[in-house]
Amino acid sequence: MEPVREDEEVFSWTDVKLPAVGPEPAGLKDWETGSRRRGRDIIMAMDHGPNSKHAFDWALVHLCKIGDTIHLVHAVSSLKNKIVYDTTQGLMEKLALEAIQVAKVRTVARIVEGDVGKAICKEAERIKPAAVVLGSRGRSLMRSVLQGSVGEYCFHNCKSAPIIIVPGKGILSKLEKSLTLPSRSSNY
């Protein structure tokens, strides 16, 4: 655990040891030179909620390329809580396995102690990623401004490009309804 001081606040972190998931995915080498292709670094702020999982899934499909490295970051108020650490390690292992299977990307995981928004921005400063992916609860602009939100804080203070993924509001179910064929008993 290494503390970092920023404006009187101390940020501590611990790296999560992820299990080896097998050999390096094919396609990481440049076909012309045979040298290893340099991928991008992408931070994904994670918690145990469905909105961060939705953002993770979105990023794997729409953002990540072979050779990229995903930095899973989970911010907590205290690293001393063994239950939180064990639960988070289990989540990170599951997400790392999914990332290699779906998008063929490497994964690094870190649990950061401190204020969530500030800790994510500090990690972004340290890693200098191509993007910082965050999930959102989908609250209205007025409510997020009045109550404050991690996404709002990172949007204004993060030096890397924050991508805030808002949860869908039944778009898929509306699309499915519009694509269903009429039944045979209808008078069409």
CATH class: Alpha Beta
Task: Report the CATH superfamily.
Answer: HUPs
How many separate domains make up the residues?
1
CATH fold group? Rossmann fold
What profile does the largest beta sheet have? Answer: 7 strands, mixed
Tell me the overall shape: globular
Distance between the termini: 68 Å
Strand numbers in spatial order across the main sheet: 1-2-5-4-3-6-7
Query: Pairing-aware structural class of the strands and helices?
Result: alpha/beta
What percent of the residues sit in helical stretches (DSSP H or I)? 25-40%
Tell me, rounded to a whole number, the average pLDDT.
79
- Low-confidence segments, ≥5 residues, pLDDT <50? 171-186
CATH architecture: 3-Layer(aba) Sandwich
Question: What is the beta-strand fraction?
Answer: 15-25%
Total number of beta strands: 7
Count of helical regions: 6
State the order of secondary-structure elements, H for helix, E for strand.
Answer: EEEHEHEHEHHEH
Radius of gyration (Å): 19 Å
Protein name: UspA domain-containing protein
Pfam families: Usp (PF00582)
Domain UspA: 41-166
Organism: Liquidambar formosana
